[in-house]
Amino acid sequence: MSYLSVCGLTAGYGPVRVLREVSLDVERGAVVAVLGANGAGKTTLLRALSGLLPGCRGEITFDGTSLIGRRPERIARLGLSHVPEGRGTFPELTVEENLAVGALLSPDRAAVRKDTDRMYELFPPLAERRRQPAGLLSGGEQQMLALARALLSKPRLLLLDEPSMGLAPMVVRQIFEVLRVVADDGLTCLLVEQNARLALEMAGYAYVLTVGSITAEGPAAELAGDETIRKAYLAL
Ligand SMILES: Nc1ncnc2c1ncn2[C@@H]1O[C@H](COP(=O)(O)OP(=O)(O)O)[C@@H](O)[C@H]1O
Ligand SMILES: [Mg+2]
Fold it and tell me: Is any ligand 1 atom within 6 A of the Cβ of residue 110?
């Protein structure tokens, strides 16, 4: 069985069903993308995986443990780290303090210091602003902070919700370069993106979500070359 295995997942908000029978797999060490237009259900999918949606049906298994019906804290403790849409940093806390939250569960303070320094190396703007409240950062810096905080929790599976959203191309490139580095280091990542071009460059395998159902899947390079996908998602 795959590291993350989603089978026949149906989920939504109360009576509103958003995801219908979604199945997907993420192998250990892989970056898998889920592409989809605005409103397709990408955020809903990540929220279901994180245990934030009551009443999900189907199967979600991570490294042999079933996640359906588990509480979000429990799922986080299994090593799933979710960087939500809109980033979710603590605006009144400084950059440094936000990063400390990411490393809260780690007892080894020396290792935490070393890992934090590594994040400042990967994201130089965060180092410059380490004593400023997160609320004063630009959108790109907040995305960097949210990603750095998630990485400091040493995730076994990173769930990334549209890291490129609302950001200037140059900042997006910076963030995806860091993602490349950590992915090459072996991070397992499920990336949801409207920006199909970026996501297909980053991922090895990808799924297309269309109004709550998976309508296409394949190796990223193949999807990037597919005429229908190119027309619908790559604006070519
Ligand atoms: N809290 C909510 N309550 C009811 N419907 C919602 C809620 N959040 C999202 N939806 C609906 O679920 C669908 C999928 O939304 P979402 O998962 O946010 O899509 P995406 O992230 O792909 O843009 C949309 O039709 C949206 O209106
Ligand atoms: Mg979304």
Answer: no
